[in-house]
Every structure is written in C-alpha cells, then in structure tokens.
Design brief:
The protein is an alpha/beta fold and 256 residues long. Helix content is 37%, strand content 18%.
Length: 256
C-alpha cells in the first residue's frame, strides 16, 4: 500500500475489523453495479471513496432532469449524457485511482453472465423485476454474493443473497419469478429523495463488509424501511428447497 493510500484510507485502517489487510482486500476487489440511478449513485460513490479497486457500472439510460431530485451522481450540466459516463466522472472526482468500466447496455442474460463471472460482489440497483431475476440467476450460476436494494414511494428493502452459503436463500426464494407481481415505478409512483440514499448507502456498506470480511453480513435477513415513520422491520428468510433458480445448487458444494 502506498503512502497516499495509507493516508486516504487511514480511517478504515484504524478500524480493528478492517485494518490494512481488509483495506487491501477492498483495493483488490471488483464490484459490479447494475443500475446507475437512485440506488446506484450512492453505491458507486461510497464504493469508490472506500477504495474498491475496480467498479463496473451497467445502465442503458441517459441523465434526465427528473433524475436529479435523487440521483446524486449526476448533475444539471450532464443532462443527456449516458448515466454510466456521468457516474464515472463523479467517481473519478472522488477517487481517481479507481478503475471504472462503464457499460452502456441493458443488463440481459448474456451480458450479466459475462460480467458477474468477473466480479467479486454484485449490487442490484435496478428498478424492474425482470432484471432483478436475471441478476439473481447469474449470481447463483457463478456463486457470487448479491446485495439487493429497492426503493419506491417511502418504502425501502435491503437483503444479501450469498450462493456460497448453503443456508442462504436467493432472490427467487423470496420473490418467485412466476409470481403475479405488479411493477411499481418511480415515474408513476414517486420516490422520497433521501430514501434511495439510505438504501443505497446500506448496500455499499454490506458490499464493503463482504469484501473486507468485516462484521456480519445481512445474509438470511430482509430489512424493510418505512421512511414515513422511519421505522425498520426485519424478517428471517431461508432457502426454498423447491426454488426454480437455486434448488440443488449446494448438493455437491461445500460451504465457504
């Protein structure tokens, strides 16, 4: 670790749970962030500030005036710019040592399979049910930990799904892909601006814990926030033995 890195990350290094070894793990890590909007903005900025060595951003959208109420990685002068390119500028302004790979594309099955295989942790910051399931399936296939966040209106959710853990459910165990799910979008339902910051920051925290091996990850629990009253609730979640995505994936694999 260089003198500049020792100084930049000194507040992490002072933490017994992280220290130099944990910080070096972060510097060597590759995080894949799906979505560069409301959740993806704080995720990307905090991962960068914490010293994640390589961040890949996936999003096919451009910056719009309506995004600026909550998507803090973007600015008024970047309206019309690809979100991944805008977010890259913000990341490098905070930490120019981070390698940022912007991927301006829709996260389809083929792309996700390639990108997830190369990542150490995946953060789902997208805004639609189909993509969430595609991300989850790729993480199960490649046995990569997934940090999932969601935010709409005043309601937020956060969970960690880790296919390396035989006890961990996957996203499809909790939200089956064949459920008759009614999609809710910010464009029609609205979203409380700080809510995406709260959930996105916590996603970044869970990813940093996984990568640095600090603390206990959220695996096996689903956190839900009602920001109207600022009350959290939590529920234990377990694997579904009949899950169409992850059932049978641990039959011949040891825990890690």
């Amino acid at each position: 670790m260089t003198d500049d890195q020792l100084l930049r990350y000194s507040r992490h290094i002072l933490l017994d749970e992280i220290g130099i070894e944990g910080q070096e793990r972060l510097l060597a890590a590759h995080a894949l962030v799906i979505g560069a909007g409301g959740l993806g903005s704080p995720v990307a900025l905090y991962l960068a500030s914490a010293g994640i060595g390589h961040i890949t951003l996936v999003d096919d959208d451009t910056v719009d005036l309506t995004n600026l109420q909550r998507q803090i990685a973007h600015t008024t002068t970047r309206i019309g710019m690809a979100k991944v390119d805008s977010a890259k500028q913000s990341i490098l302004a905070i930490n120019p040592a981070v390698v940022v790979t912007p991927v301006r594309a829709r996260a389809d099955t083929d792309l996700l399979s390639r990108l997830v295989a190369r990542a150490d942790v995946v953060l789902d910051c997208c805004d639609n049910f189909a993509t969430r399931h595609a991300v989850n399936a790729a993480c199960v296939k490649h046995r990569k930990p997934l940090v999932s966040g969601a935010a709409i209106r005043f309601d937020g959710q956060l969970a960690v799904y880790d296919p390396r853990d035989a006890q961990s459910p996957c996203y499809a165990c909790i939200f089956p892909p064949d459920d008759n799910f009614e999609e809710a979008r910010c464009a029609t339902m609205g979203v409380f601006a700080p809510l995406v910051g709260i959930i996105g920051t916590m996603q970044a925290a869970e990813a940093l814990k996984l990568l640095s091996q600090a603390g206990q990850p959220l695996t096996g629990r689903l956190l839900m926030l009602d920001a109207r009253s600022m009350e959290w609730s939590a529920m234990r979640v377990s694997r579904n033995a009949a899950c169409s995505v992850c059932s049978g994936t641990h039959s011949d694999q040891p825990n890690s």
